[in-house]
Amino acid sequence: MIKSSQVKRIGLDIGFDIVSTSQLKPSENVQHVQKWINDKYHGSMKWYPKNIERRLYPQKHLFSKALSAITVGLYYRPKEIDVEILNDSSRGIIARYALYHDYHKIMEKMLKDFASKLDVELNGNWHYHVYVDTGPVLEREIAKVGGLGFIGKNTTLINTTIGSYLFLGEIICDLDFTEPIEGCNSGIVQQSHYGNIQNILHSRFGKQEKVKGTCGECNRCQRACPTQAFVSPYTLDARRCISYLTIENRGAIPIEFRKLIGNRIYGCDICQEVCPWNKRMANKYKSVLEKKVDQAPYLLDLVGLSEEQFREKYKSTPILRAKRAGFVRNVLVAIGNWGDESAFGSVQRLLNDQDALVRQHAVWALAQINTSQAKPFLTRLKKQETDSEVLAELDRLFD
């Protein structure tokens, strides 16, 4: 039998920043999750309600011998860009997690290396499955149970030393960790008992005195969200969330959210940017991962991307998930919010794009830039357009 402390040491040597072990048990939030689904806050993410029993009761349904979770976190926050750049309307802002190679592949490879080393220690006498946001696992709750942090009002896992910019992954296994369950960070020097077992840690992240924490009376994330996606503390209506609208949403961005999205063209970090747990760590630490994507590219460099150019530019990054049409849709909304006439020609050309989703948002963006100048082009398009969604967009403008 391998000890929890040995497992963690191997995980830290692999390169993870935080590692924990915990026994699998029924979710503490069964009613909350079921109500969230019943209220349809998952939007068009039809995969979420599937296998809900496996999410809520992992010890019974993930696989027959599942007993424990080895949970890992990898810090992904890059060096912060200047606020002037962040607020420059001529630029689009990309969520921090998407600035690297696809985290699923990064984490999966590291977890498989982790499992291989454990396999050597255990002489193959164990069963396990690896998950990186790819299976029916309530990973933030499992990480919380393991002592890696607490769930914030913005629904992210917040570690009290490094904040919430964390990729999470799990090895669900049949190991039975009977020793006290502890969370730990790289470079651990000692462990100490303060009531429940907690850690005193020294690492590249400094000293972590407590694993637990709370949001207290703070509600900055809820007040800062432009689309008011937080129904209440700890409850997010994904249908209003900018990350959902610009990534998971495959259709048009609802008209009532377009202005509110501003220049966020892929995902959104606003509820994390304003979080005190993250603000106090700004530029104190940064991810060791190598950035592959500019966080604030100029909109005019993106709006004309062809399918081939889009795939080449964002090869092996999470941005491919939006597909070219979804990404250009987002860029067009940001250009409409920018409203600068230098973009008129680039947007006007997209009225003839082969994808109806792009044409629909080009109509809106062109009208935002200059309604009177756009009218002849939009009138001509209306005479030849056959897609019902594009025609509906045109009708809204001509009413």
Explain what this protein looks like in three dimensions.
With 399 residues, the protein is of the alpha+beta class. It has two domains: 4-84 and 98-208, no CATH class; 220-398, no CATH class. 39% of the residues lie in helices and 15% in strands. The protein contains 18 helices and 14 strands. A five-stranded antiparallel sheet has the order 4-7-2-1-8, sandwiched between helices. A three-stranded antiparallel sheet has the order 9-10-11, with no helix packed on it. Residues 180-204 and 206-210 have low confidence and may be disordered.
Q: Largest sheet, order of strands side by side?
A: 4-7-2-1-8
The shape is elongated
Task: Bin the strand percentage.
Answer: 5-15%
Fraction in helix: 25-40%
Overall number of structural domains: 2
Number of helices: 18
Quaternary structure annotation: single chain
Q: Residue ranges: pLDDT <50 for 5 or more in a row?
A: 180-204, 206-210
Radius of gyration: 23 Å
Largest sheet: 5 strands, antiparallel
Terminal CA distance reads: 72 Å
